[in-house]
Amino acid sequence: MFNFIVFYTWAFLSLNSLTEVVSCRNYKFQIKQVYGVKHIAAVILARGGSKGIPLKNISEFGNKTLIANSIEIIKAVPGLNSIWLSTESKKIFAASLAVCENIHWRAEKFASDTSSSISAVQEFLNLHPEIDVIGLIQCTSPFLQKSFLIEAVKYLRSQIDCVFSVTRSFKLRWSSKLKNLVPLNFDLKSRPRRQDWPGELIENGMFYFANRKLINQGLFQNNYCAVVEVPAALSLEIDTPVDLYIANKLKAYFEQEI
Q: Are strands 225-229 and 162-169 parallel, antiparallel or unpaired?
């Protein structure tokens, strides 16, 4: 098996172009089918064409890549049946093979600047009829915690269709309408103090779980959702070099505090 992996990696990287889709190559992971139990799969979408930070998903976070950081956490979560990486990048493929046994080679049309996450997930699911629920995990949310995913899996074992991560916000929001500023979530005559209102739940992009039926409809969410609330300090998303710098500083700070 090891020789096969080495040969396959060499052959893959030596090609200038791929004329065939190398799809869903499962190297080591044996999926265990249990009758009547949902197969919940986690997938990381990691395209190579990120603009703010080139090859952002394999940027250094501490002493490992962002992808390796997320996969290490995901592997520790009971109840997730399989873990996948979806990419069209040879460099991401090579950098991640040691940490993720299940790699899906994504078609170029689902990895462009204009392609959506839902279309990439649909492409993946079409090749995996055994999967009942898919969890899109964003490795660019580096402070993912095992406990967040455990909570999500508990919801998914019930009749919930979808679960996603949120952060509570107490910011007062405004909108500009016809050159006038209009408050959106508060009354001008009664500005709420932070301690006097529950705030609002804002998607933080850390993860989205949804069942197959919902994904086939082109949706991650419906009215039968649950949420996992993530503290604001752990909700940083990495899109720019500044975000990455802050994330590494926060990681060092959190480790020092522990």
A: parallel
Q: Are 210 and 120 in contact (CB under 8 A)?
A: no
d(CA 167, CA 143): 13
Least confident of 78-92, 104-118, 180-194: 104-118
Tell me which of 47, 191, 193, 194 is the catalytic residue: 191
pTM as predicted: 0.83
**Integer Cα distance of 178 and 167 in angstroms:** 31
What stretch of H or E contains 152?
helix 146-156
For CA atoms 214, 219, 220, 223, the dihedral sign is negative
Contacts of 158 (CB under 8 A, 6+ apart): none
Which sequence spans correspond to the domains of the chain? 20-165+201-257
191 belongs to the catalytic site: yes
pLDDT in tens, 212-238: 999 999 999 999 999 999 999 999 999
Strands 82-87 and 162-169: unpaired
Residue 258: its pLDDT value, please?
59
Fold of 20-165+201-257: Spore Coat Polysaccharide Biosynthesis Protein SpsA; Chain A (3.90.550)
